[in-house]
Write a structure and sequence with these properties.
Elements lengths: L1 H10 L10 E6 L4 H17 L2 E6 L4 H14 L3 E4 L8 H9 L3 E5 L10 E5 L1 H19 L3 E8 L5 H15 L4 E9 L3 H14 L5 E4 L2 H14 L6 E5 L3 H8 L5 E6 L2 H16 L7 E4 L2 E4 L3 H14 L2
Parallel strand pairs: 1-2, 1-3, 3-4, 4-5, 5-11, 6-7, 6-8, 8-9, 9-10
Antiparallel strand pairs: 10-12
Helix pairs in contact: 2-10, 3-4, 5-6, 7-8, 9-11
Length: 314
């Protein structure tokens, strides 16, 4: 329902303000990450005096193309987008660029030189950083031996998913006693509950589940809880959100740690770069923001994160 609302907002006609820039902000999923990205975009657009047109491609390439074509026809000044594919999204964005529209990508990128700038978290490092913490847990609590299952999102955003997964696997490979016994795709919580539940059934001796995104992490935690194996199976994840923070503070001990992105800063910086490019200023081609580690071992840090979310949601 929200995706339809975002689309309607993007296509609705508002009174033109003479000289006001129009910037299209496109997300591809409805979750806490993209919600905070939009908050960052809104703040930066408001500070710059631009109208922000918000839209959600809902993970559908055809919808993404439709949105971009709509923005080309309406003559926006810039498109700030998290593309669904490095290759498949390129042609539509290149058409927009040829019409004089500034392209800034964030979170995911396209091949070639179409974007003026790309703002990201280091995707491999997001997986790697969580892998480091998981490795410490395995060494301390499991004697250096663990059977591990993974939840990825390869079918949704293959390049991003692969980098996170590979980063995590690199750290697991450092521990001789670790065996990866299952790997599935599930990026929405309702998918992940079922997939993780199937993993738990198929591998009764499973020790750890790692998920590559927010929905997968939420689903993995719920699956462990539903199976009655809290205290026996630990969950590690990637991405953050209020529900994730609550899981880290819960007494059940299921979720141990996550490494999250900085979505508000990503959205704000992406729009700022669009403004700079529109003014003809030089912008950095690629900016990688460090991840944010939230751990059960640092509850004060988790609470501070929750307070920050409340401030942003006001």
């Amino acid at each position: 329902m929200l995706s339809l609302l975002f689309f309607a907002l993007s296509c609705s006609k508002k009174p033109d303000v003479p000289g006001q820039k129009k910037i299209a902000g496109i997300v591809f999923q409805e979750d806490q990450f993209f919600r905070l990205v939009l908050f960052g975009m809104r703040e930066a657009a408001a500070k710059g005096g631009a109208e922000l047109l918000e839209a959600n491609s809902a993970g559908r390439p055809d919808r993404e193309i439709q949105l971009i074509n709509t923005y080309i026809a309406s003559g926006v000044d810039a498109i700030v987008v998290s593309p669904l594919s490095a290759r498949a999204s390129m042609s539509a964005l290149e058409r927009a660029k040829q019409k004089g529209i500034i392209i800034v990508t964030y979170n995911t990128n396209v091949e070639g030189d179409t974007p003026s700038s790309y703002v990201e978290s280091d995707q491999r490092d997001l997986g790697r950083a969580t892998g480091v913490v998981a490795g410490e847990y395995i060494t301390k609590h499991l004697g250096g031996k663990a059977r591990v299952a993974l939840l990825a999102f390869q079918a949704q955003a293959p390049e991003q998913s692969m980098m996170r997964v590979n980063g995590f696997k690199e750290e697991m490979a450092r521990i001789p006693g670790v065996t990866i016994v299952a790997e599935q795709d599930a990026w929405l919580a309702e998918q992940a509950v079922k997939k993780a539940g199937d993993m738990l059934t198929a591998h009764p001796d499973l020790d750890i589940i790692w998920a590559a995104n927010e929905g997968g992490t939420v689903g993995a935690v719920m699956a462990v809880k539903n199976s009655g194996r809290a205290g026996k199976v630990a969950v590690f994840g990637t991405d953050t959100g209020e529900q994730i923070a609550d899981f880290l503070l819960a007494e059940d001990g299921i979720l141990q740690a996550v490494t999250g992105q900085r979505p508000f800063e990503i959205g704000s910086m992406a729009v700022d770069f669009a403004f700079k490019a529109l003014r003809g200023e030089k912008v950095q081609k690629t900016v990688s923001l460090p991840g944010l580690l939230l751990s059960r071992l640092n509850p004060d840090g988790v609470r501070a994160f929750k307070n920050r979310l409340k401030e942003l949601n006001k």
